[in-house]
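Encode chain A's predicted structure.
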Amino acid sequence: MSLNAPTELRQAALHWLAETDPAEKCAGVTALAHAWKEGRLGLDAGTALVLSAPIPGHPPLPELVSPTAVPHRSMATTEGRAAMLHALTHIEFNAINLALDAIWRFPEMPREYYADWLQVAAEEVRHFVLLSTHLRSKGYVYGDFQAHNSLWDMAEKTRDDVLARMALVPRTMEARGLDATPPLRAKLAHAGEVEVAEILDIILADEIGHVLIGNRWFNWVCKQRGLEPDAAYAALAAGYRAPALRGPFNLEARRAAGFSEGELAAMGGNRDAKVLT
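Encoded structure for chain A:
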């Protein structure tokens, strides 16, 4: 870890969240995870931390635009496939920040909560490094294409409530990746991007675990507050205007990630959606 990085987990997570250089952020999070495993970090879960630098830290590029302003990416061209690879890389960079934000922002959670999200952050670093390294092999770097910030936008909306954060970021926004990854993988493999397809296999396997962590802590907070999870989720999705769920849904992955049969049925999973493999 950097000599300047705090030695308390939540403060260190905020430190690396504010870091603007992707390589430094990745190295810092990796070192943070190792230090935690080796017992070299403290944990103060009771203190509400205060921002001292802008978050999330990100480099000057990519330029962040509205999701509707991101150009269409054609799989038929080398540049189009590179743009798609860049979009995936950006998602993983955002995911690092989201996991770090879940650690520092919400006090009074169990020790296992913070350990879970540190694990997620370290795995998102691995995904980002795999994708950005492959992007570089294609003659491009992270920042060469425009990107959007919708994942972080939902993090901003849910910044004041851990229940809303667990419901609407891992269980909603990130769970959409469980559905979208198999067909995207198939398109990339068909276009000859076999290495990217193999990276997506790694990412999907890890993301099932990340959404499972979101489900675990959503249900834990519901129990603490005496809330029925399905009703609580519906109220939060409506109150925060979460994106509507659209199939087809990856039922196998969603089951593995902790969604109940009742939830799958409510989203049309048992009737209209198909399992994506």
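The chain has a mean pLDDT of 93.
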